[in-house]
Design goal:
heterodimer, A: alpha/beta, Rossmann fold, 2 domains, 6-stranded mixed β-sheet, 9 helices, 14 strands, B: alpha/beta, D-Maltodextrin-Binding Protein, domain 2
Chain lengths: 298, 442
């Protein structure tokens, strides 16, 4: 079951196509990476999903229903550019945002107390937003996004302005929310974070869907069949690598082996030669490399 | 609808609870009343006590009242030269010498001897008092009937107006009109000016608030929960409520304070106010009659209509202009100066309206008055000013309908600009661009 499904979604502004027939789906209970360079159309796409704007054509399903005006209460959106009312008190502010998402006063209080306690920041309740540091405000933003227990969370650069400790704190919360049944769309430029957190990704460039799939599959799709082998001493002379040798270092080689069976063959040959092998590893491209390659080639 | 209510509440409460709002709202009337009281005290200030020895050599019985005022007159029998030499020892500030009346035609000179000059007020006081006694003396001496003289002196002409109209039966009907123009002018000017202030102050407040939300990127968070139109409308209504609250508090507090302040006002000695022509008994009656007439005219005003139409034009004008200010605010960047080209088209009609209002007050039934009080960009300021002059019913009705329709239309129109503007960054926007936004699809 997909929590979100987009079919040929298209959105044009005056003279340019922001989203060009984009289709992808987000499986329920997954952490999904929405990637793309600046100006690729990610924000336009997110605004369509959060019903801020409407697509010119195409269909969007949320939990199997076509997207409609009641859906925002099921979505929690944390925009990249985000702010809070500086003069409001933290507690009041959170209550306000929670109630706009349809929570009653009582429900809002329960949820807010839960989260403030969880982050151990109960004493911020009465503080004004302007008294908080940027990182503290980000935490409040996060709580505001999840306070109504949305089925779908859309986080746009959620870690910007957070120190490593708080980044981990939020990461853990994201994972825990997923465990509780929420699905998360995660948009960022930080590829190492995507690799760490996301299971599936979609890459958008110039409004178009460039690639989509499981992180593992995507990596496999772009792998160059390179292997790194590290060993003690000299490379055995009986081993035939042919023109597959890409690079030779001291006690290490990088070879290109197009066929997976050949890699097993090479490994067994090396074992038979009695060489002590320290490492035999297929080199998979990082998402960063794939990203740059895909976006650059367009 | 629920969200709209929440937004209105927030916009209203955060402003009303602000310390600056509370101070402003409560302190303004207090400062105003304190100002009036202080001015009263200043005017009532008579300086230090002045003691004057009076040597009267004339056969006029000059009575210079000393009670209540700070100037004390004491009649002395001693010779003038003795007084001149000794006045200081007897604790006097000076000697007033009234010589015998020598002739009936020329000015009569009395003399004051002292080291210090008399203040103008005391000088005029003495001159006025003595002139009055002299007048009485002359009337007696010349054998003139005092009543006849008063009759000649009180020569006034009053112009009575009679309003002609054709009644339902087609007959000419005459109705005496009270001389209420002065009161209508004052009342009209106050009302027109109040609406003018409201449009500017609260319109700008809406604009600044929209800009702030855009610049601090709060809108990005908000519009994932609420529709931009709800956010705009909620803000306009919330701020409008703040305005009404402020006016209400000022009204109540102002009236109450003025009432209380009466007891603190210094008593102004009537003889000090206008000593040269201190009102005679007949003058007093006259003044009382005038005050009574004014009171009657004030109470004769159609207060129900005035109050209702003031609130109507207050709200109608506010919604019309505040929505325009909101639209412009949504299109602005950080730079307020840059936004001037956008605010100018809104502020010009408001300023024009106040000028038209001043012209209309003088000619409340002119063609300009009729049409400017129907044109919706001017009517919120011009019409309230005309209300005390009792404009025709059809004019009032048409004006209200046009304003209501235009306000609703402008709120809708501004909503369409606003929803595009709040998400548009880093672009210098022209008026033409704003116009295009109206036709953007969602």
């Amino acid at each position: 079951m997909n929590v979100l499904q987009l079919e040929k979604v298209r959105k044009t502004y005056q003279n340019h196509v922001a989203v060009d027939e984009v289709s992808f789906s987000v499986p329920e209970g997954s952490i999904f990476g929405l990637l793309g360079p600046n100006g690729a159309g990610k924000t336009s796409l997110i605004r369509i999903i959060t019903t801020i704007t409407r697509a010119d054509s195409g269909v969007i399903y949320l939990n199997g229903d076509q997207l409609n005006g009641s859906h925002p209460t099921q979505i929690g959106y944390m925009p990249e550019e985000r702010g809070l009312y500086k003069k409001m008190k933290v507690g009041e502010h959170l209550t306000y945002l929670a109630r706009l998402k349809g929570l009653s006063k009582k429900e809002a209080k329960t949820q807010i107390d839960y989260w403030l306690e969880k982050f151990e920041i109960q004493d911020w309740q009465k503080k004004k937003v302007e008294e908080l540091s940027k990182g503290m405000q980000q935490k409040i933003q996060f709580i505001a996004t999840v306070v109504h227990q949305p089925k779908l969370l859309i986080l746009d650069e959620p870690f910007s302005g957070l120190d490593p400790i708080n980044t981990n704190l939020i990461k853990d919360e994201i994972r825990e929310l997923r465990k509780k049944g929420a699905s998360i769309i995660f948009s960022t430029h930080r590829m190492e974070q995507v690799e760490e957190i996301c299971e599936r990704i979609v890459l958008i460039n110039q409004g178009k869907n460039v690639l989509e799939g499981n992180v593992k599959d995507v990596k496999n799709q772009f792998k160059e069949h390179l292997y790194r082998i590290e060993y003690d001493g000299e490379l055995p002379s009986n081993i035939n690598i042919g023109d597959g040798l890409i690079k030779q270092e001291e006690e290490a080689i990088i070879v290109k082996i197009d066929n997976e069976r050949d890699s097993n063959l090479l490994l067994s040959q090396m074992l038979q030669s009695g060489t002590h092998i320290r490492l035999f590893q297929e080199i998979l491209p990082s998402l960063n490399e794939i990203f740059i390659k895909q976006v650059g080639s367009n | 609808m629920n969200n709209l209510w929440l937004i209105i509440q927030r916009e209203y409460l955060t402003r009303v609870k602000k310390r600056s709002f509370i101070l402003m709202t409560i302190l303004t009337p207090i400062i105003m009343v304190a100002f009036i009281v202080i001015v009263g005290f200043i005017f009532a200030y008579q300086g230090d006590k002045t003691r004057i020895a009076v040597k009267n050599d004339s056969d006029i019985k000059v009575v210079l009242p000393s009670q209540g005022s700070k100037t004390v007159f004491v009649n002395k029998k001693e010779h003038l030269d003795t007084l001149k030499n000794n006045y200081k020892e007897s604790d006097f500030d000076g000697v007033l010498y009234i010589p015998p009346v020598s002739n009936m035609n020329n000015d009569w000179h009395v003399q004051y001897f002292s080291e210090q000059q008399l203040s103008l007020v005391i000088k005029e006081n003495i001159e006025g008092k003595i002139a009055k006694q002299l007048r009485r003396y002359k009337i007696k001496a010349l054998n003139i009937n005092e009543k006849d003289l008063a009759n000649i002196e009180n020569t006034n002409v009053a112009l009575d107006e009679t309003n002609l109209s054709i009644n339902e039966a087609g007959e000419l009907e005459e109705k005496e009109t009270k001389n209420s123009a002065a009161i209508a002018t004052i009342l009209g000017t106050i009302m027109g000016f109040m609406v003018y202030i409201v449009l500017f102050v609260y319109g700008m407040m809406v604009m600044r608030s929209v800009m702030e939300e855009k610049m601090t990127r709060i809108v990005e968070v908000m519009i994932s929960s609420v529709k931009p139109f709800e956010l705009m409308l909620g803000k306009i209504i919330g701020v409008g409520g703040v305005g009404l609250t402020q006016f209400l508090i000022w009204g109540i507090l102002g009236t109450g304070l003025l009432f209380v302040a009466q007891f603190f006002m210094p008593e102004i000695d009537p003889s000090q106010i206008d000593m040269a022509n201190a009102p005679s008994a007949t003058d007093m009656d006259d003044m009382q009659a005038k005050v009574y007439e004014v009171m009657e005219l004030v109470s004769e005003q159609n207060w129900g209509l005035i109050f209702f139409s003031f609130i109507f034009y207050f709200l109608g004008g506010y919604f019309l202009y505040a929505s325009l200010f909101a639209a412009v605010g949504s299109a602005m960047g950080d730079d307020l100066g840059e936004g001037q080209s956008l605010t100018l088209p809104i502020t010009i009609p408001i300023i024009l309206a106040i000028y038209i209002m001043f012209a209309v007050i003088n000619n409340p039934n002119s063609t300009l008055a009729t049409w400017s009080s129907i044109f919706p960009l001017f009517s919120p300021i011009v019409m309230p000013a005309r209300i005390p002059f009792e404009p025709a019913w059809w004019e009032l009705g048409l004006s209200m309908i046009v304003l209501l329709a235009t306000s609703i239309f402008f709120v809708w129109l501004s909503g369409r600009i606003y929803r595009v503007g709040i998400l548009m960054y880093g672009k210098k926007v022209s008026l033409k661009e704003l116009g295009k936004w109206m036709f953007y699809k969602d």
